[in-house]
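Dissemination and training. As part of the outreach component of the grant, students in the summer workshop were shown how a complex can be specified as a set of sequence lines and then modelled as a single object. The example used during the hands-on session is reproduced here so that future cohorts can follow it. Participants entered these lines:
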Amino acid sequence: MQDLIDTYRAVRAETLLRIAPLSPEDCQVQSMPDTSPAKWHLAHTTWFIETFVLGAAEPQAAPYDPAFRTLFNSYYQTVGPQHPRPRRGLVTRPDLATVLAWRRAVDDRVAGLGDRLSDPRLAALLTIGMNHEQQHQELLVTDIKHLLWQNPLAPAYARGAPPAAAPATPAGWVGFDAGWTMAGKMAGHMAGHMEGNMAGQSAGQSAGQSAGNLAADMPGSEGSFSFDNEGPRHRVHLEAFEIQDRLVTQGDWQSFIADGGYQRTSLWLSAGWDWVQSAQREAPLYWHREAADAPWHTFTLFGNQTPDPASPVLHLSYYEADAFARWAGARLPSEFEWEHAARNGALHQQDDVAWQWTRSDYAPYPRYHPVEGALGEYNGKFMSGQYVLRGGSLATPAGHTRASYRNFFPPTAQWQFTGLRLARDA
Amino acid sequence: MQDLIDTYRAVRAETLLRIAPLSPEDCQVQSMPDTSPAKWHLAHTTWFIETFVLGAAEPQAAPYDPAFRTLFNSYYQTVGPQHPRPRRGLVTRPDLATVLAWRRAVDDRVAGLGDRLSDPRLAALLTIGMNHEQQHQELLVTDIKHLLWQNPLAPAYARGAPPAAAPATPAGWVGFDAGWTMAGKMAGHMAGHMEGNMAGQSAGQSAGQSAGNLAADMPGSEGSFSFDNEGPRHRVHLEAFEIQDRLVTQGDWQSFIADGGYQRTSLWLSAGWDWVQSAQREAPLYWHREAADAPWHTFTLFGNQTPDPASPVLHLSYYEADAFARWAGARLPSEFEWEHAARNGALHQQDDVAWQWTRSDYAPYPRYHPVEGALGEYNGKFMSGQYVLRGGSLATPAGHTRASYRNFFPPTAQWQFTGLRLARDA
Amino acid sequence: MQDLIDTYRAVRAETLLRIAPLSPEDCQVQSMPDTSPAKWHLAHTTWFIETFVLGAAEPQAAPYDPAFRTLFNSYYQTVGPQHPRPRRGLVTRPDLATVLAWRRAVDDRVAGLGDRLSDPRLAALLTIGMNHEQQHQELLVTDIKHLLWQNPLAPAYARGAPPAAAPATPAGWVGFDAGWTMAGKMAGHMAGHMEGNMAGQSAGQSAGQSAGNLAADMPGSEGSFSFDNEGPRHRVHLEAFEIQDRLVTQGDWQSFIADGGYQRTSLWLSAGWDWVQSAQREAPLYWHREAADAPWHTFTLFGNQTPDPASPVLHLSYYEADAFARWAGARLPSEFEWEHAARNGALHQQDDVAWQWTRSDYAPYPRYHPVEGALGEYNGKFMSGQYVLRGGSLATPAGHTRASYRNFFPPTAQWQFTGLRLARDA
Amino acid sequence: MQDLIDTYRAVRAETLLRIAPLSPEDCQVQSMPDTSPAKWHLAHTTWFIETFVLGAAEPQAAPYDPAFRTLFNSYYQTVGPQHPRPRRGLVTRPDLATVLAWRRAVDDRVAGLGDRLSDPRLAALLTIGMNHEQQHQELLVTDIKHLLWQNPLAPAYARGAPPAAAPATPAGWVGFDAGWTMAGKMAGHMAGHMEGNMAGQSAGQSAGQSAGNLAADMPGSEGSFSFDNEGPRHRVHLEAFEIQDRLVTQGDWQSFIADGGYQRTSLWLSAGWDWVQSAQREAPLYWHREAADAPWHTFTLFGNQTPDPASPVLHLSYYEADAFARWAGARLPSEFEWEHAARNGALHQQDDVAWQWTRSDYAPYPRYHPVEGALGEYNGKFMSGQYVLRGGSLATPAGHTRASYRNFFPPTAQWQFTGLRLARDA
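and obtained this result:
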C-alpha cells in the first residue's frame, strides 16, 4: 500500500505547490459566486478525505473540528447541511494556517492507515479522493486567475515570463468516414461531482503507478479509473465528418473581432446574442484594451501580455465558440466525433491547452443509472442546461485526462481554460 | 386556387373565433415578457402575410401603414428593427378596431391574388403564413389564460362548464424492442420560428412539388408540410423501452405533492431545485389553495375548478416533469422514443391534451442546415437551452400536429399546456 | 345643497373630459409601477365616493359590486386588502364601459342624497371626495402622457397645436428681508392621501362649520379647504433671501446641457450623481434626439415638439433641479421662502405651469397629529424620503391650488409636471 | 509641536489596537458594499495623511507607492479616480503586511516634520487627518462586527465576557419650555466626509485661531474642532417638549416585538413598511432565534449573547426607531431638541452607547457654504435622503464627540451602533 500512500502524498503536495505563490489574503477571497476561495479548496478537499475515507476506515474517530463538517461540505445532502456557496469568501475563520494544519493532520491519519488500504473499498475511496483533489487543483488555478484579474494592479500568479510562442501553423482538416464507433468507458460505476460546475470526476493512476488492487477493482480505467458519467460504453453511429488538427488561435480570433464578429446578430444563437448584449462582450474574457483603436492585451497567469497569434484562444463561452464556428463556415464537433478522433490519434493539442466545447448537451448515456449512497447522491443532477467539453487544459494535473472524460459547464462560463476546435460535415 | 384561399379564410376565421370572448382591454394587455397581447398576435400574423406573401406578390404595393412594419415585426432582423418584446403591451395605438380593419384589408388583398397563387412560391409562402398563424392561435389562448389569471376575480375565457371528467384509468406500459427506426420528415427544408419560445416552424415545399399537391394536403397532414427542424429524416437506434399509454393525471400529481415531491431535493435536477426554491413552487402553475390544509383549485379556461383526478396534469415545467418521473421510478422519453411509439399507434392522448416533455435537448438533426433569406434567418437560432416537447394540446388548432412535430421551450416554461408521459428502460 | 351637488357634477364631468381623447386600450394600460391606468383612476375615485360618502350616508346599502372594494382600494388598510399597485394594469375586467356605468350609478346616488347633504359630516366627506378626484385628474394626465411616450409612434393626447410660445424674458430677483412669517393653514385637521406619491391631502370641515360655508367656498379657496399636512399654522423665521420672478426655461436648460451639466460630478448631490449614472440621463424626461449632434425634441401632450426656449422646463427630478441651481450659483428655495413670496404676490407662473421643487424635506409641521379613522389612517405615512413641491401645474384642475398646498415626490420622480424656480441668500 | 505629534501617534496607535484581534484574512474581506475591509481602513487613512498632510508639506516627495493613490482614494474626485467601493474586498495585494509597513513609513515622515507643524495650515490638515482616522476607527469596528456575523461559527471580536448588565431603570421624562436656543458650532468652515455614509466632517481652524490653541484643544473638545456641517451657528425656536433620560432598552424592544410591532402596518412609515416586508425583518439586526417560540439571541462583539433587558437596544434602522416611537405614543426628537437637551445636561447615555436617530433630515444649516478645494469637494454632497443621528456610540473613540456633532445615515442602515431616545410634545 505504500505506493498508494506515496501517490496520495504526491497529489496532496501538488495542491500545496499551487498555492505557494499566494498570501493568506489571496487564499481568502471569492471573486464571484462561481468561484471558490483557495482556502476553501484546501479545506474542502481535506473534508472530502476526512469524511469519506477516514469516515469509512475509522467511523468512531472524532473529526478534527466538528464545525468544519458543515462549513466545507459542498453539496452532499446526505452528509448534512452546507454553507451557501456564494458566501464562502466571507468565512475568515478558520484562517489559512488552521486549514493547513488540518490538512497535515488528515494526511498523517491517512498514512497511518497503512495496510488497511489494501481493502479495495478504502483504496477506491482514496482514489476518488485523489481524483477529486486533482479537479480542485484545476479550479484553484482558474479561480485565482479570476481573483487577481479583479485587482487593478493586474498581479501575476506565476513568476517569470510566459513560454515562448510557437510559430503559427495553418490548420488542417482530418476526415473520418461514416460508421459505427464505441463511446465511453465500460466499467464506470461510481461518481463524484465537484460542486457547481465541474465535470463528474474521478481518478486515475498516473502512468508509472502500479495498478495493484486499485486497477483491478475500481472504477473504470481505460485501464483504471473513470467517472460514472463516462459510461455505459455504447455504440454510436457517426456521419462522415472532418475535424481540425489544432485549436482556433488568438490570431484567428482577432480576425473574427475585426470582421465584426461580436456585432453581427446573424452569427449568434438567440440566447448567445442576449448574452453578448447584456454582458457587453466584445472579446474573450481577460482581453482588454485602452480604447477601440488601441491594441489588445490579455491577462494571463504571468500578468498582462500581448495576444500571441499562434497560441490557442482561451476563455471562450459556448456562445462565442458557436458563433466563431458559424462565422468560419464550420460547426462544433459532437462529443462523440471528438472522442472518435481522439482515440484515433488525430488531435494535436488534445488535452494540454484548453477544454474544447462540443455541441453536445450534457446528458446521460443510454441506460446510465447513478450509484447509491452519498458519493453518488448527485449523479446526473447536473444534467440540464450544460454543454460537454472534452480534452483538458494547461491547468489540468498530469495524468488526469482521458479520451472518455466529460467536462461540462453552462454556455456562459468563461473563466475556465476553454477553447475551440472546428468540425464540419464531410 | 380557390381551395387554398378557402383554407386561408378558414385559418384566419379561427383566429377571430378565439378572440370572440375578449374585450379590447383583454386584447391589449401583456401579462409577462414571455407572453404577447392578443392584439399583437392579431397584428403580427397580419404583418407576416403582408410582408412575406403580399410583399412577394406585389413588391411595389404600399403597406397598409408603414409604421406597423416595425411595431409588429417579432424578430426578423432582415426585415428591419423590432419593437422590444417586453413592451408590446404598452402600445395602445393602433387600437383593436384598427388592427381588425387591417386584417380585413390584407385578407381581401390575398383573396384578390386569385390564380396568381398557382405560383408554387406564393403558395408555399401562404402556407407558411397559415401554419404561422396556427401557432399564434395556440399562443393566443395560452397568453390570455395567463392574463386572466392575473385578475383576482379569476374570470373565465370560455362560457359554460368544462367537459365532464372521464373515469380514471390505470396506466399501462407499452413495450418496444431495441432496433432501428427512422425519425423526422423528409421534405422539410425551410423554417421560420415564432418569436420567443414557440417551435421552430416553417414551410416549404420542395422545388419539385406542385402547388396543387400543397393545397390539397395542407396544412398539417403528414406527407405535405413540415418545418425544417423536423428534418433531415435520419436513422436512429433505440434501446428497448416502455412508454405509458396515457398522460400523468392530476390525481397522480396530488400523490406526488402529498409525498413531499416539492420538498425532496433528491428528486430534482440541481437547476430544477434552484428553480423550485426561487420560484417558490409547491404545485403546477394555476394550482392554488387557501391554506396548507385546504383543498386545491386550479384555474382553467372555465375559471377556477377542482382538480379532476382522471384528467392529465397540465402546466408543468420540464423540471417538474423530470422530478415526477424520478419519483415514479421512471424517466422522460426521448423525442425519438416518443416519435417511434406515436408512429406505431401506441399513444393515447397523443396530441389533443398536452404537449409532452421529452428528455431531448432541442438540437439540430444530423446534417441540418438552415435555409437562406429572411424566413430562414433564425433557423437553429433557438437551439440552445431548450427541451423538445412532442404531441399537441387542447389549444392546438385541428390538423396542425404530426408525429414529427418538434415543439420546444426552456425548462422553466409553465404557461403552455405542458404535460408528461412516463417511459423507462425495458 | 344643490350648489354642492352641482359642484360635484362639475368635478366629475371634468374627469370624463380628460379621458375623452382616449380609447379603452389607452385607459387600460399601466406604463410603470408609479403610474396607474386611466381606468383605475376612474374606478378608484368612484370607489372613494361609494366607500366614504355613500358608506356614511347609507351604511346598509349594498355596493355596486362587492369585488370592486378590493380591486380599487389604493392603500386604506382599515377598509380592507388592496390589489397590488404594480399589477393594476393587468385587471382587464371590469372593462371601461362597466366602470363608466358604475360612475353614473354612484353619481346618481349622490345626487339622490339631496338635502341629506346639509349634514356637515356628509358635506365634508363629499368635499374630500371632490378634492381627491381633482388630484387624480392631474395624475390621469401625467400617467397618460407617460403611457403614450412608450409608443414609438409618439401619439398626441391633445388635438391641435400647442399654445404659441411667449417671448423670452430675462429673470429678475425679488428680495425679502429677514424676519418672521406665518406658514400653513389654520384649519387643516383631516387628511387623506392619494396612493403612491401625491400630496398628503385631506379635507375637512371642523364639526362646527356649516355646510353652507363649505359649499360656498370650496374647492380650494384659501379660507375653506385644506389638507391636514398644511397645518398647524406656525411661525417661521426666514433669513434674508431672493427668489426669481419666473421659472427656469428650456433655453436655460439647454445652456446647462451645453455646459456639460450632466457630465460634471461636482454639480450633483452624491445620490443624484448615482441616479444620473444608473438612469443614464442627459436631459429631462421626454427630451430626445437622434444623435449627439442632432437637435433636441421634447414629447408633449401635443406630440413631439421642438423645445421652446422661453417656456419653463418641465419633468425635472429633484436632483436635476438641485444640480442646475448649483450650476447657476443659486439654490432651491425652502418651502417657507416660497410660501412667503407667494403670499406677497411676488411669483409669476406661480401655479399654472409646473410644480416647483423646494429644498424642504417633506416632514410634519410642529405639533402635527394625524386624524383618526380610515381617512386619516395614513397621515404622515409618506413623510420620509420625499421633497416638497409648491405651486401647481398646467394639469392641475382650476381652483385646486393655494399658497399653503404641499405636494411631494421622491427626488427621482420626473413624470409629473415638475419645474424649478431659483433662490439665493441675500 | 511635540504635543501634536504625540497626539497623532496616540490616534494612530488606537487604530492598530483595534485590529489586534484580527488575522490577515479578517482584515481582507468586505461583507457588503456598505462596509469596507479593515485593511482598506488602514490603507485609506494612511492615504489621507500622505495625500493631504505630506502632500502639502513636501509636495515634491514621491509617494510610497503611486498605485496606492487610486486604490485607496475613497471619493475625492479632485485627487483622481477611485477604485469602486463594492470591490474593495477583492484587492488582495498589497497584503496587510505591506499596508502596515506603509503606515509606519508615513508616521515616521509625519514625525519628521517636527517644527514645520507649527505652520497652522499643516497643523489643521493633520488635525483633520486625525479626526478622519477616528471616524474610520468606529467604522472599522462596525464593519468587522458585520463580517464576523457572516461566519456561521459566530466568532467573537473581543476576548472575555461582556460587561455585567446594569439593573433596569424606569425611563423618566425631562421637560423643556418653548423658546429660543442656539444650535451648531461657530467656527466650522471646512469639511471632509468619509466615504459612503459617515458624518460630513471637517476640520478647520477659523482664520483667527492659532495653531497653539488647536494643539491644546484637539481633538474633539468643544470650542476647538468641528466639522463644517455643524455650522453656521444659528438661532432655533423650539416648542415645549419632553425627552427621555435614557435610551430605549432591549427589554422595551422585546415588548414591542411581542405586541406585534413588526406585523402592524399602521405603526410604520410607508417606506418603512416596504422595507420591513422586503428585508423580512422581525427584530433588529443581529437578533436571531432558532424558531418562532425560541428565545432571542443577539450577536455582539463578544459573540452570541442573550439580550439584556436593561441595556439599550442597538442596530436599529430609522424606520424601526420611528415605528417604535409611534407604538409608544411618542416620537423621535428633532436634532435641535436633542442638542438643546444635551447642552443642558439632561441626557444620560448621551454618547457612550448608541448613536440616536432624530427626525431631522440631514440638510444644510442656513447660510451654509462648502469650502473650496479637495477637502471640501464633497461638502453638502450627502445632504439628501439621510437622517441625522446625534450622540456617539461604544465604538466611538474617546474625545471624538460633542453636542453639535451630526452623524447621518440612510433610513435603512442598521450595521452602525444605532439606538433610540423618545421625545414628545409637552
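Chain C touches chain D at residues 75, 77, 235, 237, 239, 265-266, 268-272, 318-319, 322, 359, 361, 363, 366-367, 377-378, 380-385, 411, 425 (CB under 8 Å). Students were then asked to discuss how this feature might be tested experimentally.
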